[in-house]
Design brief:
This protein is mainly alpha-helical and about 100 residues long. The chain has one domain. The protein has a two-stranded antiparallel sheet with strand order 1-2. Strand 1 and strand 2 form a beta hairpin. The mean pLDDT is about 85.
Length: about 100
């Protein structure tokens, strides 16, 4: 059994949740765990601070939370979609155009 250690003193709920997610990902990913970016990535201008492995790990966290079996099956590739949306401004613009159509 692996042990999860989290420090809670003086942390707000968002920071505590972020720390819990990171510790859970370390348990799940083991040696394949990738550290998150040091600085906050909060706007479309700063998404490029992320690298592909960090984006892939974001997808894995979402898959675990949603109890989905895979991120690339049945014609859907969440890894490539998230990489395109977060790492490539031109593809992000095109994706937004498609999903904004009514």
């Amino acid at each position: 059994m692996k042990k999860l250690t989290v420090t809670v003193s003086g942390k707000d709920e968002r920071e505590l949740a972020r720390q819990l997610i990171n510790e859970a990902m370390k348990l799940y990913r083991g040696g394949m765990y990738v550290e998150p970016p040091e600085d906050s990535v909060g706007t479309h201008e700063t998404f490029e601070k992320l690298d592909r492995l960090q984006v892939d790990q974001t997808v894995i966290a979402a898959l675990l939370h949603s109890n989905l079996e895979a991120g690339s099956s049945y014609g859907i590739d969440l890894y490539k979609t998230m990489q395109a949306c977060l790492l490539d401004p031109e593809k992000r613009k095109r994706i937004y155009e498609v999903v904004s159509r009514r």
